[in-house]
Every structure is written in structure tokens, then in C-alpha cells.
Amino acid sequence: MKTAKNTLFMLAFCLPAFVYAQDSTKHILPEGTVVSVQLVEDISSSSANAGDLVLFQTSAPVVVGNDTLVQKGTKATGRVTEAAPRKGMGKAGKLNFSIDYLNLPTGKNVKLMGEQRVNGDTKVGTAVAEAVLLTPLFLLKKGKDIRFDAGQTFKAFVEKDTSL
Q: Which of 50, 132, 55 is nearest to 95 (CA)?
């Protein structure tokens, strides 16, 4: 009788741990998995600075096999890596940012790889030619700022196999 109680006791406590261990190894977010994210708020070369935090959320669930491992709307973060406002003589702004981490509701962060680089078209030659031919006021011509609107979608990739 005592042996049956001990066996039942061990099953009651060991079985959940065994099931959990099997379940946790089953959920791996593989390296290279595509994660589609969208900006939470607008970002512009006129106001951004290198090092600023950029907020994203997943725009679609992340599905591996038949399992949804990350829900739509999961937070992600990145950083502005380079920013410069527009300048005179038609020189456009610059805005580069990275997509660094997927921030899971469990508190775990998944390292991502993804960078968006946008350098505006430089029109210095055109502005100088216009200035020489027409008027010195064209030297004051400003280039365009780079702007990304909230909701714009980007792709990032899981950096390495990550157990969820």
C-alpha cells in the first residue's frame, strides 16, 4: 500500500514536469524565421537622433509548422542608428534604424536582425547648376526629410534558434 502511494505521489509530481519539458523543447523559434513588424509611431529624419528607441509590433503572427509561436501585436524594439535632417542645396536627410528585439509577453527577448537604411537623393549638383544659371536663391533650396509613418511594415529575422 505504501509503495502504491509513493508511486502515485511520484507520478503526480513528475508527470507535469515531464510534460512541461517535452512541451518547452517543442517550441523553438528557428534561426532565420521571418518576423513582420510595423512601426507603432511615426519617425522622421527631422526629429530622430542616433540612439533613439524605435517601437514596433508584429503585424502578423509568427507560425512555425502548425504552431503559432508569437501572436500578432507582440512588441518589438529597435534603435535609430543614423539620423540627419535635410540640408541646403537639395541635400536630403538620412534615417537608418535597426530592429533588435522581439519582446515576448513572458519577459523573454528574442534577438532579431533587421535594418532599414534610407538615404535621400542628393541633388547638390542640380541645385548648383540651377543657382549658377538662374539665381543664388537656389542655394537655399532644401532637400527632403525621410519619414516613415506608423503602421509601415518591415521584415526582420530571428538571429539564432531560440527556445520559447
A: 50
